[in-house]
Amino acid sequence: MFEFSLFIILSLVLVITSLMVITRVNPISSALYLVFAFLALASLYGMLSAGFVAAIQILVYAGGILVLIIFVIMIMNLTMEELLPLKADYLLMIAFALIVIGGSLLPALFLISNYMNINLENISENFGTIKEVANVLFSKFVFPFEMLSLLLLTAIIGALVIAKRKL
After folding, report:
1. pLDDT in tens, 125-142
2. DSSP 120
3. Residue 58 to residues 2, 40, 55: CA-CA distances in angstroms?
């Protein structure tokens, strides 16, 4: 019962902080909510006995990527006058509609999952370990991994070019 209630609390924290990330006008407050979302997601990974993935979530995303995001925000040096036109009230309405739709489909998902035969015995004992993640990442998913790194590099270069134009 404790694990289920902890899961519900962490899930609610993740959903609420994710909504706060996309609804805030100030990018620094949005980045702070992103930290809380990353920490809640890492906690959920920890509950799934994927300790390596939880540690990488904290180290890479909450540490490295978020510092990079804040660095780019600081380089751009946007004022509130430049940020106010970006405020979108309709985004909150869309998020609310998605939550209502998702909440209405959740009981159907539980009914379907009761009739599915899920065999947990096929999961190896090495699930979530460094060796298992490395085997899968660098054998089966090496191309998407490299494409993601190129995408992140392109985003960083694009942000620096935009910031350079404003100076």
Report:
1. 777 778 888 888 888 888
2. G
3. 24, 10, 5
